[in-house]
Automatic annotation (TrEMBL):
Gene behind the chain: Hs3st2
Designated name of the protein: Sulfotransferase
Location of the protein in the cell: Endomembrane system; Golgi apparatus membrane
UniProt binding sites for 3'-phosphoadenylyl sulfate: 29-33, 110, 118, 235-239
Pfam families xrefs: Sulfotransfer_1
Top-rank lineage group of the source organism: Eukaryota
Documented EC number(s): 2.8.2.-
Organism: Loxia leucoptera
Lineage: Eukaryota, Metazoa, Chordata, Craniata, Vertebrata
Protein's UniProt keywords contain Transferase: yes
Length: 272
């Protein structure tokens, strides 16, 4: 039946909530927030701003709960979410594959030694009484035995974690972003991300300026306003000073993992 005369329908919100077609699955302290903030400038991308932790902590809530968190998108737009802990979660690859085998995965990687120090620096800012970096790194320093059960060390063993993903996804569906190049050449790295997502290269050099205080690139304009947009205070923290010998021992520890990772993905990240 026709609506009564004089009554106006409520404003229709454009778009539909859809499950993500691309997920930034890792890694913590690699540059995932920067990738998300940069890619959401693209008119064909809508991204969830918070980390939903669906495939690790909230899977029991079901796909409809997950979908309900997503931003509304038009048919021409891609939904993206990021939760960096997925990369090291054993169940995540199978769960994402069972949602959609065609999901595109983005992994932001960074020199694992620098990443571990950054991870420790972040934890220290929240829990000032934790043991020293050196104390947590080694089970036995004189023997050079690294404690791989400490999360800050374990996350950087990229080649190990990647094997779980390759059981469910072809390498062609996983795109690796260099955390280092994201700082030195953000437009170049984001150009490759746009190609991987199958969208036009809209985000270019003109979107970025280098913030000398923070030591990394910022957006000239954010998605929601015409003002420059830099990542929050927690990004670009000054790292804790670590004994160079400890760093050398860690480099030795990660070298075989790095080489295996380069060989697997066919890309040399030059962390050596």
């Amino acid at each position: 039946p026709a609506p009564p005369a004089g009554s106006a329908p409520g404003p229709a919100r454009p778009g539909t909530k859809r499950l993500p077609r691309a997920i930034v699955v890792g890694v913590k302290k690699g540059g995932t927030r920067a990738v998300l903030e940069f890619i959401r400038v693209h008119p064909e991308v809508r991204a969830l701003g918070t980390e939903p932790h669906f495939f690790d902590r909230n899977y029991h809530r079901g796909l409809e709960w997950y979908r309900s968190l997503m931003p509304r998108t038009l048919d021409s737009q891609i939904t993206v979410e990021k939760t960096p802990s997925y990369f090291v979660t054993k169940e995540a690859p199978a769960r994402i594959s069972s949602m959609c085998k065609g999901t595109k995965l983005i992994v932001v990687v960074r020199n694992p030694v620098t990443r571990a120090i950054s991870d420790y620096t972040q934890t220290l800012s929240k829990k000032p009484d934790i043991p020293t970096f050196e104390g947590l790194t080694f089970r036995n320093r004189s023997l050079g035995l690294v404690d791989t059960s400490w999360n800050a060390i374990r996350i950087g063993m990229y080649a190990v974690h990647l094997q779980s993903w390759l059981q469910y996804f072809p390498l062609s569906q996983i795109h690796f972003v260099s955390g280092e190049k994201l700082i030195t050449d953000p437009a170049g790295e984001m150009g490759k991300v746009q190609d991987f997502l199958g969208i036009k290269r809209v985000i270019t050099d003109k979107h970025f300026y280098f913030n000398k205080t923070k030591g990394f690139p910022c957006l000239k304009k954010s998605e929601s306003s015409g003002l420059p947009r830099c990542l929050g205070k927690s990004k670009g923290r000054t790292h804790v000073q670590i004994d160079p010998e400890v760093i050398e021992q860690l480099r030795d520890f990660y070298r075989p993992y790095n080489i295996k990772f380069y060989e697997t993905v066919g890309q040399d990240f030059r962390w050596e």
